[in-house]
Amino acid sequence: MNEHIISLLLENESGALSRVAGLFSARAYNIESLSVAPTDDETMSRMTIVTSGTDEIVEQIRKQLNKLVDVVRLVDLTESEHIERELMLAKVEAVGEARDEVKRLVDIFNGRVVDVTDTTYTVELTDTRDKLDSFLTSLSSIKIHEVVRSGAIGICSGEKVLAV
Amino acid sequence: MTGAEIVVQSLIEEGVDHLFGYPGGAVLNIYDAIHQQDGLQHILVRHEQAATHAADGYARSTGKPGVVLVTSGPGATNAVTGIATAYMDSIPMVVLTGQVPLHLIGNDAFQEVDSVGITRPVVKHNFLVEDIKDLAATIKKAFYVATTGRPGPVVVDIPKDITGQTFEFSYPRDIKIRSYQPKVTVDSAQVKKAYELILDAKKPMIYTGGGVILSNASDELIKFTQHLGAPITNTLMGLGAYPANEKQFVGMLGMHGTYEANMSMHHCDVLIAIGARFDDRVTGNLEKFCPDARIVHVDIDPASISKNVKVDVAIVGDVKDVMTDLNKIIEASDQRLESAALSAWWLQIEEWRAQDCLKFNRDTGSIKPQFVVEQLHQVTEGNAFVTSDVGQHQMFAAQYYGFNKPRRWINSGGLGTMGFGLPAAMGVQLAHPDEQVACITGEGSIQMCIQELSTCTQYGLPVKIINLNNGFLGMVRQWQEFFYEKRYASSYMESLPDFVALAESYGHVGIRVTKPEDVRQAIEDAYGKYKDRTVFIDFMIDKEENVYPMIPAGAGLNEMILV
Q: What ipTM score was computed for the predicted complex, to two decimals?
């Protein structure tokens, strides 16, 4: 089982998202995260799916996605050098000693405190999924009230582009 | 033009001559437009499921897309089984569903259902028309997607208000969809590689499926097979692609395939799979499948390649193009399969064939279903279009009819839809008014779409219904006999109608046959003196006959149960 980040250009048609989501549920493929938003070309959306499976299954996922009429282009980012980012917002308890500890950790992880109350900090962090996971782990002694993650997005390194 | 007229004109532009459907509120405008033209004929079925099956039978027997028109809500949901049937067997079909007016969508309006959502997993693609200016182009796209690449059904959902608006009609000549490129150029290096691998074979085997039929590649396949001199088997979906009466044909393979076909598969050293998808009913236990074989796989759908079975050489492309290229390479080459090895292989195969695995007891005094199919073959000289439902009768038809031409065997192979046979036969008969059409069915299946006897009356369709009546859901009963210690849970058909009287009540000819010696005469009458009538022959067959050979679930192809 390996993790793969598959990036798609999708026709900006109603129902396109449900075709992709439906494919994953109908064929019992794993889906760890899915993010989708318009691009600079208003006729297309860019979708990033984090999935996992054996090589054979991931090969099938790519082929089945490519078969969808709404899928314009597809790339498996994990097959080459790529840049991966995920945005996380976390609301954590910030009382007493923990208040300084959270701030220190946020600085170490290059995050920002974007909202403050007497008892909480809301932290924003943008990094790879691994880094976000480590940040949460390092908060072990601190109470986390809420975590929101965007799901990963990604782009190929270098001059290679996914475009029409 | 009104939207309704645009719909009808678009169909005429596509060359549609028959439209199968059932009216309702959301499609009344379209029906009104159909009523006022004579470019295409509408066939009124008795249930929307039958509309899709009839269109499917039309498509399978002609190669042209089948076209369906149903209303919103229950009209669309009733059509879903037929759409899924076509999807599983890659049949080109365009289904127009009416929808509630745009402003009511999402409002739980009367007869509203999310047709695009409900059909999404069982279509190649679907569309909701949201603007009359897109209507003609969307229909064009639907036909384009349905008929190109690996074919399949496409649904176009049309809100009622759009059919009432007006817009200038112009039907696009060509359509391009940037995200859909069905045309593949065959990779000639792969073709060469495939032939090199084939030349290495001592025990070659050709295994072909429905793709050969969909691609109209029978002639190319015959040439290829004869060039090689190798044995060939067809899947249930592929029967007729290679003539059953030719010596190199070893019969159907798979769960109820012949001994010689399955043994040849199991022991071959090079397997050439063409337009077939290694379905579980074909492979049996994957871990025991073709243990010694290197595999060449030709398929138009890249997703079919190495999906169930890992292959050594894959050629993606239209079967007809690939076979043409392969034949060219063979014809230009002076290399052939090693003849001594091939002779030894054939000797072995003939030994398997000598088992005569399809033999059955002819002296029981009861009517054997195999005998009925055999007699049907003889009376129709093997030239009939034969549709079937699903179950034992389907397997008997596949095993004993002997199809020599493609597109003559019409059955629901993938989805296994009971109720398919009669409406499919109607579609076939409409497309081929002068041909002999038989629907081989059972008393269970036929009752799933029996209302279509009424459609046969309305359009004077002389299909012959060969009802193999054993009073059991035969295949269910067979499994219960083998695997559930004969606990026949709900497999006995009680309270059957008098099929003869039923057929007669629709104005058809009904014949009941209870003795083997009357089988032949009944079939001769059906195609002779009742040639122009719908005939329902109720054959009271042996109640507990089983389909053999059989590969039990989890077994390998070499582990068949013979009689």
A: 0.93
